[in-house]
Design a protein that fits this description.
Layout lengths: L1 E5 L11 H14 L4 E7 L12 E10 L2 E11 L5 E6 L1 H4 L15 H18 L6 E5 L6 H8 L10 E6 L7 E2 L20 E2 L2 E3 H8 L2 E4 L2 H6 L10 H6 L4 E3 L27 H13 L9 E5 L8 H13 L3 E5 L4 H13 L4 E4 L4 H10 L2 E4 L9 H7 L3 E5 L2 H6 L13 E3 L4 H15 L2 H12 L5 H16 L6
Helix pairs in contact: 1-16, 4-5, 8-11, 9-14
């Protein structure tokens, strides 16, 4: 099959979140199964032409409202030797950040991603690529399936192309004033409750849900959760209508990148069969974070500091967590209120708690490798990558049973010695605390703890498994006629 994978960001070129990791790894895994996979993203300022050896391959005139805007298409290759295309339009993408300033979204995001969604289809003609599947991701590419249906049904390059749309987080929908419809070239017939309209606004993500051939989400549990009012963010009715076309596939991680046995950045390598290096990594983390050098259980978090990630119940439980004798290290940025609360708490628990209000890949790896327990008490979590990385690095995930966390972490049972972490269901500080107490009881038994860690380190959440599932979905899409 020929597949064009369209996303607003991709590793190693540009990244703000997990979507970039998916777009950087999944196409390579699918290509390894014998398919022709190509990636397209905007050419942001971060995508340096010389550093990535980009070559200009085409110039396009992309329809935008009643006029056309010219752009250049650049071509390069990712680390996985995947052909990657970059839509170059400096007035839209040559900016310090991808989507927003430190304070607010860019005011012209509608125009930027209407343009990108249309350019995705136009470049197929320019580079003479005829994809069987156009795989779009999140709201920034949500209009592409609609554009394909309305403007390219007879195109020799994409007229027969089937569309797959993946929702990485339903909470981010791309909502804009209805006046922006003029930039799409579409008629008012699509601005209806059955189309793009959502409480009086344009909803780019909804376009992908309504007009794609198949919808996927990033875990099986999340695909069921978003059919309910609790997790549907107002789109549960739309998704219920498309339920027969909705599938959940758990994301993976790159096991070559995330490998503690070959990670030269760690103080000492380790593996499931040789766990000695894990304790050295813990000692090094304690030293660098100025935590006391003890055998106390070390809890780590690498997260966005927001309610979605469970920071409200964590901060409510914090005094009792610290009273249990554990150490805590948190890496991340987010809501200012959590910056203040956590910084103040860390000052009161010197030697036991450290908060690092930043993001750094090297620091993140040191936390995965050095902590005993990796905490993810999320209110909702479409998939989550942190828990899979933690498993790989010998840290027991402690998670709430939601979304991808429910699909990837199995609650440990000391009687059977089966399980990979600790799971709680009720979203409350009390439930989190009870689960942590249970985890610390297991931690106190070194035999059980060693079994738990080995269980986690030998699980398989590599992209190869996910890639096979996506290929099955692509084949379903190719057999599908819209309207069925």
């Amino acid at each position: 099959m020929k597949i064009l994978f369209a996303a607003s960001e991709a590793v190693p070129f540009a990244k703000t979140g997990g979507l970039a990791d998916v777009a950087g790894s999944l196409p390579s895994a699918i290509a390894s199964l014998g398919h022709d996979v190509r990636v397209v993203i905007p050419r942001y300022r971060q995508v340096d032409r010389e550093a990535f050896n980009l070559k200009k391959s085409a110039t396009l005139d992309v329809p935008l409202g009643t006029w056309k805007e010219r752009c250049d298409i650049f071509e390069g290759r990712s680390a996985g030797a995947i052909t990657s295309y970059f839509v170059g339009k400096d007035i839209f993408y040559d900016r310090p950040h991808l989507y927003r300033t430190a304070k607010t979204d860019y005011a012209d995001n509608a125009e930027r991603f209407i343009f990108f969604s249309r350019a995705i289809l136009e470049l197929c003609r320019a580079v003479d690529f005829r994809p069987d599947i156009l795989h779009c991701n999140d709201w920034q590419t949500g209009l592409s399936p609609l554009f394909r249906e309305k403007f390219y049904a007879k195109s020799p390059h994409v007229g027969a192309t089937k569309t797959v749309f993946t929702v990485h987080n339903l909470g981010y929908q791309g909502l804009f004033p209805p006046k922006e419809l003029r930039l799409t070239g579409l008629g008012k017939d699509v601005f209806t409750p059955e189309g793009l309209e959502f409480w009086g606004k344009l909803n780019f993500l909804k376009a992908g849900l309504v007009y794609s051939d198949i919808i996927t989400t990033v875990s099986k549990t999340y695909s069921r959760e978003i059919l309910t009012p609790e997790y549907g963010h107002g789109l549960e009715g739309v998704l219920q209508k498309r339920a027969k076309d909705l599938y959940g596939i758990v994301n993976g991680i790159d096991y070559k990148e995330w490998d503690p046995a070959r990670d030269h950045g760690l103080p000492k390598a380790f593996s499931a069969s040789r766990l000695g290096g894990k304790s050295e990594c813990k000692k090094a983390l304690q030293r660098s974070a100025r935590l006391a050098a003890t055998d106390s259980p070390l809890i780590g978090m690498v997260t966005r500091l927001a309610d979605q990630k469970g920071l409200d119940i964590l901060t409510a439980a914090l005094p009792k967590i610290m009273a249990l004798g554990a150490q805590l290290i948190i890496l991340g940025t987010g809501d200012e209120k959590y910056h203040r609360v956590l910084t103040k708490a860390a000052a009161g628990y010197r030697g036991k708690m450290r908060v690092l209000l930043q993001y750094d890949d090297t620091l993140a790896k040191s936390i995965y490798a050095g902590c005993d327990i990796f905490l993810m008490p999320s209110r909702y979590e479409p998939c989550g990558l942190g828990q899979m990385i933690a498993l790989r690095y010998g840290a027991a995930p402690l998670v709430r049973k939601t979304g991808g966390l429910a699909d990837t972490v199995v609650d440990y049972n000391p009687k059977t010695e089966r399980g990979t972490g600790f799971v709680f269901e009720e979203y409350s500080a009390q439930a989190l605390l009870a689960c942590l107490r249970r985890a610390l009881m297991v931690y106190a038994d070194k035999k059980h703890w060693k079994r738990l860690i080995k269980n986690g380190m030998t699980t398989d959440f590599s992209w190869e498994r996910s890639a096979k599932d996506y290929v099955k979905i692509y084949r379903k899409a190719m057999k599908k006629n819209r309207g069925q």
